[in-house]
Amino acid sequence: MLNCSSQPSPRQVTMEFVGSVIEGDSAAVEKYLDLDAMVDRRMQEIPPTDSTQTHGYFRDIIINNLIGEGGIRADWKSHRCVVNDEKVAGDTAEVELTLMNQTTGQVHYLKVYLCHSDLGWRAFYFL
After folding, report:
1. What's the CA gap between 121 and 92, in Å, rounded?
2. How far is residue 108 from each of residues 18, 41, 75, 119, measured CA to CA in Å?
3. Multiple choice CATH, 10-126, 1.10.1130.10, 1.10.3470.10, 3.10.450.50, 1.10.10.10
């Protein structure tokens, strides 16, 4: 049985992850993100014959979207982000994230998926 009582919950890690993306804190983004797991998942979605899209290629794409002038960072900065409920099942978790556009009022819902390891809870996918 997983004992995480002394570590931040998946919900808390999601709040920290979203905050680090908005603030552009690349060290914190990498702390709360399992980038290799995210890349591996993304690579499963491409045809095996496309040799131009390597592990390094996707690492760069993902991290560049989350920091600096990246698209995900820009999108999250323009929204009010509310971290909602978490669902934990063993060493994986799902956290609901609501994004409300501060100009239009339009609402989007995301799920952030996390896994637990010796490093604690880390996001590996969001959709």
Report:
1. 8
2. 15, 23, 11, 30
3. 3.10.450.50
Structure pTM? 0.87
122 vs 34: CA distance, rounded Å: 6
Which tens digit of pLDDT belongs to each residue from 16-54? Answer: 999 999 999 999 999 999 999 999 888 887 776 666 778
**Widest pairwise Cα distance in the chain:** 45
Q: What's the distance, CA 93 to chain centroid?
A: 12
